[in-house]
């Protein structure tokens, strides 16, 4: 056996398909009764499987230093991933925001859903490429050599081993963080899993705001180096959510895990210049002195958010503009540009879209996905301590890292110019 792949998710299947096509003898071990359980759930079962961002832009979407991930994104750009799927007979469409989705050709597959189709095509391609797939095969132990021991006692041996056991979110799909346990005996450094792409729980009582959505806000977090995120914002009972919150949530998850205080601020009018806003308010104070603060705020935010804002900055919403002092106007504008939420919790791993934590990146050569300290050992996908914003980037990394492992093992990483999908070298 040339390569054993542990985990039949996105990364493991991509690795197995490519390995088989490159002529490797591959065994894929999946602990549940079916490969790709999580793939079938992705993107609301429609599978946002990559994004059209160029590599340099895409690298900024990940939580690690962009230089670390850039080589693999350059080698496996969006176009390469599209080509890989097109060889599986999967065409694609692109949304205005660059998210890429599969197009379902047949009626039967339409019934099952695009995400299930992607899973089924990957499994079929692996089998067609000669990959042996064993389901209900939970790996319990790995030993250099590489010897792989199943829970049931069965053993396998191969020159190379790819750990693609996923993270620890949505455990019902099979991703229960096993990778971290498997490498523990090897002394490989890992970080505990934590929720990323998850809703955040603020200390403030926001229950009266449940159900309100603001279409475009800018969210900031008090973690150095994290870019502000623009997107929608949702009050969801005791949690705040929406794309802008989700995309910074992993940084909150890590900071909370480390016992640090997390503060998120929301700019409800990110497209307005602060000075212009101030001039607008001062003009209105002259022209419409009897206008209530609440009514004015409703130009920018929902009614209940306006009331919440007034309470936070200590200016009664029923006050008329004429009675407002300059300092009060300043406080209201500051509130509108930066409502503060003290974050005390995050949705549990079971409900997070992805997890941070896992095998530390310093243990891995990110150009080949090989373990730095063990020859023949590789990692792919969410088992690694890396996560990205939503938009197809997490699956992109799973495919790209899985393909990288197969090519490294087959020794064709640097000969990629001659590699055509669907043909053996
Ligand atoms: C609801 C939801 C929606 C999502 N939507 C998107 C989206 O639209 N776009 C996007 O980019 N990302 C999305 N993601 C994230 C994306 O699905 C993951 O990042 C990706 O699936 C990770 O791939 P992986 O192969 O590393 O892990 P997984 O897909 O989790 O696969 C790991 C596999 O390993 C198996 N395994 C684990 N332990 C063992 C063991 N001991 N022995 C044998 N097998 C084992 C598991 O059973 C599982 O099949 C979504 C995630 C969720 C939960």
Structural account:
This protein has helices at 10-21, 42-45, 55-59, 66-75, 78-86, 107-112, 114-128, 178-184, 243-257, 274-287, 293-297, 303-313, 326-337, 393-410; strands at residues 3-6, 26-29, 50-51, 91-94, 99-103, 132-134, 139-143, 147-150, 155-157, 160-163, 190-196, 200-202, 213-221, 229-236, 239-241, 262-267, 339-346, 354-359, 364-365, 370-371, 377-379. The chain has 425 residues and is an alpha+beta fold. The two termini are 19 Å apart. The model is unreliable at 414-425 (pLDDT under 50). It binds flavin-adenine dinucleotide. Flavin-adenine dinucleotide (FAD) binds next to helix 1, helix 2 and helix 14.
Low-confidence segments, ≥5 residues, pLDDT <50? Answer: 414-425
Q: How many domains comprise the coordinates?
A: 2
Q: Which CATH architecture of the largest domain?
A: 3-Layer(bba) Sandwich
CATH C-level category of the largest domain: Alpha Beta
Bound molecules: flavin-adenine dinucleotide
Q: Count of helices?
A: 14
What is the overall shape? elongated
Radius of gyration (CA) equals 25 Å
Number of strands: 21
Q: Could you estimate the helical fraction of the residues in percent?
A: 25-40%
Hey, roughly how much beta strand do the residues contain? 15-25%
Strand order of the largest sheet: 12-17-16-13-14-15
Under CATH, the topology of the largest domain is which? FAD/NAD(P)-binding domain
CATH superfamily membership of the largest domain: FAD/NAD(P)-binding domain
**Distance between the first and last residues' Cα:** 19 Å
